[in-house]
Amino acid sequence: MKKLLTLSVIFVSLSAYSQTTMGFILPSLTFKALTTNSATKAKITYSDHLEAARSHRIPMLENYGQMDELVENQKLMPVPESGLGYTTMKLTHSKAYLTPKSTEILANIGKRFATATDDKFFTVTSMTRTAETQAKLRRVNSNAAAGDSSHNYGASFDISYVRFNKVVGANASLEKKLESVLKELQEEGKIYYIKEYKQRCFHITVIGEDNNLPKDLVYSEHNH
Question: What are phi and psi of 206, to 5 degrees?
Answer without folding.
Answer: -85, 135
